[in-house]
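Quick one:
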Amino acid sequence: HDKVREAAYNLIPDSDKKQFHYDLGKALYSICNRKGVGDTVSLAIASQINHGKEWILKDKDLSISIAELNMKAGEKAIDGCDHKTAYSFLGIALSLLPEGHWDSQYDLSLRLNFLMARAAISTFQYDEAESIIRKSVGKARCLDDQLPSYLLLIDILLSQGNPNGAYDTCVSVFRQLGEPIPSSVTREEAGAMVAETLSLYKEVYNEEEWIHKMLEDEKIRTITKIYNLFVDACFLCKHEHIMIYHMCRAAQLSLQNGACEYTPIALIHFAGYCVIMDENAESIC
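Output:
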């Protein structure tokens, strides 16, 4: 069958193959859209229809639809850990957006740039990822839309060996969120925060309600994640007392409000410190 298919394909003149792939992709896209199965075969359809990019760009409505198709294909590639393929599809998606797309296609632009930055990070293109993220932060209309990009930017800065940049970005985001961040922390203040956190931990440790209480407040979940990244930046910047203070703050947020996906890291940070300092190490672990 492969040989027959290859022979049939070779009968198509080279000058017509681009048109052939594009027409095939459009036909598949039309059929799958009507039957509601486009997402499941988005990779195959996008790989065909992208051969006709020059024709797609002539039709504004089609270019938006095919940009969305490529975004779905990129997301599926990311889910499958094929980041190089994801980078290719997402790059094509961005190139299909019209001029002024941040105004006319805001949600699509925001999502596409975020995914493109993720794919760039996964293919070790950190400078490009940082450039994309900083542009997204500048174009975003509100802090809620900026937060995913800020989190990615902090990750990028830490990965690039720029903890000072990550530290400053965390502080900036905390201020925008209204989260109090002391500019300096004394040894005594850090010690008092540890004692306070240990006391809170002992209060909730055996509470069945806390074990099953999930943190639903999106703002607090985001702040907890930023604190976890901030602790890493503080450690690398050798801001010991500030690190301890905010490590405790991250743990307290979960202990007071419930657990989320960022709680384990927050508690591991705190437990690790307690082990090192031998402060109720056995109980906290």
